[in-house]
Specification:
The protein has 16 helices and two strands. With about 325 residues, it is mainly α.
Length: about 325
């Protein structure tokens, strides 16, 4: 059974920032695919998640507990669904999402105001997300954030076989997002794939946007500031007295996510949750998925890419990906496109 672009469960997570909570139907569809398909690993994860669910609910109450589980652990449903045999055609998905992002970038910088689109925050409460004057407006696209969108595109690019034209289309969409996280993820991809031509071609693009002031976040000064700022956040916010199990959501002034998602994860899930999470990643990392997983995890330190609904789906897919599915001819199946 293939998980095609037209399949409802594949499409809904990428429509969340356009349709809203209706896209949560993806969880139900993913859960339905698990019926009658069990494995020892799935049972282990299921029991572990139930135990962790009980701990989170006791600490936070039912509503906040389920909220934490959906945001931080929703990827497990997709992971288990993909483990049951559902597959994702990454090449077609990447081309579709790249075209969507490029189209949005063109429209919001010409004939449509980004404030009118549902995948952007309210202009009244988050005016900083919108460009002023003649400045370039970044597309937020399917990820609801330029950083989330661009990192997911790079992760898909890392394993998709789409030819040079497709690669150039995807790289153009990533660059259109003008995200520091996206550029960092793209550089990781180019270095890992040994694509010096594209890497050299990217240099003037990055230099140009930095010089124009569109991205001030790609500089040694900013990186030094960011590291110092994040260190201070860790010292000030990490709960020493509740480090093992985390603090209740109501005691977290910044809620979940924010601009330091990995810290929010540790604050609310504790070291116990971190160990559980890292165990899942370590058990499932192999030569077929290490690069997209590394890209997604690196991109999630700041803005939590893998906790957004589209990121949960992609992260769950890559966790389930096995070496034999990436190599043509081993299992008699055609390679992914």
């Amino acid at each position: 059974m293939k998980f095609r672009l037209g399949n409802t469960a594949a499409y809904l997570p990428f429509s969340y920032y356009y349709l809203g909570p209706a896209a949560f139907m993806a969880y139900l569809l993913a859960g339905r695919s698990l019926l009658g398909r069990f494995s020892y690993r799935g049972i282990f994860l299921g029991l572990g998640l139930i135990a962790y669910l009980a701990m989170i609910v006791v600490a936070n109450g039912a509503v906040d507990g389920l909220y934490i589980l959906r945001f931080f652990w929703g990827f497990l449903l997709f992971y288990l669904a993909f483990r049951s045999g559902i597959r994702l055609q990454t090449g077609k998905l990447l081309l579709f999402l790249s075209a969507l992002t490029l189209a949005e970038a063109a429209l919001i910088n010409t004939v449509i105001s980004a404030e009118l689109l549902p995948n952007y925050p309210s202009a009244e409460t988050a005016s900083g997300h919108f460009a002023t004057g003649e400045s370039y407006q970044r597309p937020y696209s399917f990820g609801g954030s330029a950083s989330v969108t661009s990192v997911i595109l790079v992760a898909l690019l890392a394993i998709s076989r789409i030819g040079w034209k497709g690669i150039c289309c995807a790289v153009a969409a990533i660059c259109a997002c003008m995200s520091g996280s996206g550029f960092l993820a793209l550089i990781i991809y180019l270095l890992a794939k040994a694509r010096p031509a594209l890497l050299l071609a990217l240099v003037p693009v990055v230099a140009g946007v930095v010089a124009s002031g569109e991205i001030q976040k790609i500089s040694l000064e900013y990186i030094h500031y960011l590291l110092e700022f994040k260190s201070n956040q860790i010292s000030a916010q990490l709960p020493a007295n509740s480090l093992l199990t985390g603090i209740p959501l109501q005691d977290s002034p910044n809620g979940m996510g924010g601009d330091f998602a990995s810290l929010s994860f540790v604050k609310l899930n504790g070291l116990a949750g971190l160990v559980f999470f890292l165990s899942i990643v370590a058990i499932n990392t192999n030569r077929a998925n290490w690069l997209p997983l590394f890209i997604l995890l690196a991109g999630s330190v700041h803005y939590g890419v893998i906790f957004f609904l589209p990121g949960q789906l992609i992260f769950g897919y890559f966790l389930s990906r096995k070496p034999e599915l990436a190599a043509p001819g081993i299992s008699g199946k055609a390679p992914e496109k």
